[in-house]
Structures are given as structure tokens and as C-alpha cells.
Amino acid sequence: MTWNLIGHEWAVQLLRGHIRDDSLRHAYLLTGPKGIGKTNLALRFIQALNCPEADPEGNPCLVCPTCGRINRLEHPDLFPIRVGPDSKQIKIDQIRELIHNLALTPYESSRRFGLLIDFENANPSAQNSLLKTLEEPPGSVILILTAVTSDALLETITSRCEEIKLNPVPADVTSQGLEEYHHLPPEEARFLAHISGGKPEIALAMHADPEILDRREQLLNEHLEILKSNSVKRFAYAQKVSKENQKFEDLLDIWTSIWLDILHQSGGSRAPLQNIDREEEIQQVVKQVDLSTARGSLELFQRAHRLLGENANIKLTLEDLLLGLPTIDIAR
Q: Into how many domains does the chain fold?
């Protein structure tokens, strides 16, 4: 049993061992791409520590009132911190309130839990304000931080946590989990397992909200148009997209995925396609670019991702990306 999570069996075994051996750390850092399942793993861990019906192996029942309240982030000894609805950052006041709450005696559990979701979004002051609690945590407190990568956090933060790095889940494992735990039809499960790129939470989001799939389809169509277009049209597209921050982020993720497919195909890799519904178009690109061009194009996306994380100008970043992509004649 793996806590009804899709993939990450080794991480479950590790955390279950910490519970069994009474060797719990005072702070954990769960890292991995968005949609990989970091928060769900953290919640399962907290459920395993609190479930009154947990079995001797450290598996929570997932159906009792305690497990339900933890899953809904409503347990009185669980204090979640994340970016607020009107902000782009986790702020120092949120951390100060968390520290105050963690210092109190547990209400129902034997411990109190701080869950800091997407902590890469915490500003430096907020991160620094957490240091003393990480250095000298109350004995009844466990802190769990999640982030895309430890590089996005202060080294003084990461050095005080046990890091658990979650990797993309193989497509066959994701597909099986979608069928077994979420009862998706086999064909849909296989399709979502591939196009989500090994990120189970993204696959589930696509299943729940067809508009996500529609946006993906639109962005892939726009990618093909850009490859066929001249510099004037590419500048115009950059001007338009630069006004929509979320679209730019989605564009980077989706276009990166298709260039990974192109790179793998160009190099003769046997890696399965992520964009399995675009195989014909991918093959057309592969016939017109060499391995060096494919690798260089992917590096453009990696550079754009890095610049986005550094709050660079979106319009200039997108122009740099679009002008660097090759011009390709693709029939649809």
C-alpha cells in the first residue's frame, strides 16, 4: 500500500520508516515539479501520524474524520501557509503567525504541524523569519516545506531540512494509478498519463477541468503557427502574450514538453512521447531539424524558465525565445 498516492513509493517507504522507527525529523523539504504530488505526500504523512485507525505498518485509513479534516486542511493542529489570494508571495506576517501558533500546546494531536506550500514563493524576509524555528523547533512540532527546487530557497533553510526529491512518475504507473484510485477509463488514463509528463496532479486536474485540455490544444496550435511564421508575426505574438502572465507560464511548460519530444526523437531515444496526440507533427519537425538545433531550441526554453524565475521582462524574454526557434514548414 502506498497511501493511495500515484507513484513515489520509495518516499512513502522512507516516511513510513521514520514513523515506525520513531526517527521523525523536525523539518522536511519536499521538492519536485508542480503537479508531482508534493502536498498530497505531505498530507498523507500527517494523516499517518494522526489517524486513530492507522494500521501497524503506518498506513492511515483515509476515511475517518481525522483523515478528512487533515485532507481539507481543517485539523486544529495543522497550520498551512501558502500564497494569499491577493498576493504573489508568502509574506513575513504569515510566518510570524505560524510561529506563534506552533508555540502553543497541541489541541488534539500529540504534535503541531506547519505545512508551507510552494515555499519558493516566500520572500527573503519570510524565509529568514523561519530560521530560528528551524534551528530550535519546539519538541512537538514538525515542519513540512514544499518547493519546486531547493535552489529557490535560502541555503540556511535547506540545510536544516531533510530533503525528499520527487521525480516524474512513469506513464504506465500514472495510468495504472488513475484507473485504480480515481476510476478513469483506461484510454483516458493512458492519454492523461502521457500528456501530463509524469505529474499525477496535473493529470487529475485535466480530467476534472476540460478547459485545461482546451488551453493545451490552443497553445500547441499556436506553437505550430509560430514555427511557420516570420519575425514580424513572432514579435506581434510576443506583444500579445506578454500581457498574460499565466499564459506565458503555461506556454513555456507545454512548448518545452513538445521540444523534449523532438529532441528525444532527433537523438533516436526510445523514451515514450509525452505529446502522443501530436506524433505526426513532431515527426515533421524532426525531419527538418538536426540534433544540434533541437538541443539549442530546448536550451532557449530552459533559459526562458530561468529568466521568468528571476522576474525578467516577459516581453523581452518571449521575443528572445521566439526569434531563436527555427522556421519550419508544417502541414496540418
A: 3
Per-residue cell: 270: 526510445
**Statement to judge: residues 161 and 15 lie in one domain:** yes
Q: What is the pLDDT averaged over residues 220-238?
A: 95
Distance CA 42, CA 46 (A): 6
Angle at 318 between CA 210 and CA 275, to 5 degrees: 40
Q: Is residue 329 part of a domain?
A: no
Residue 189 has pLDDT above 70, yes or no: yes
User: Which bin fits 200, alpha (ψ -120 to 50), beta or left (φ > 0)?
Assistant: alpha
- pLDDT tens track for 73-107: 999 999 999 998 888 899 999 999 999 999 999 99
Is 171:57 a contact under the CB 8 Å cutoff?
no
Largest CA distance in the chain: 66
117 and 243 assigned to the same domain? no
Q: What is the pTM of this model?
A: 0.90
Query: How many angstroms separate the CA atoms of 30 and 196, rounded?
Result: 20
Tell me which residue range forms the domain holding 94: 9-165
- pLDDT band of residue 246 (cuts 50, 70, 90) is confident
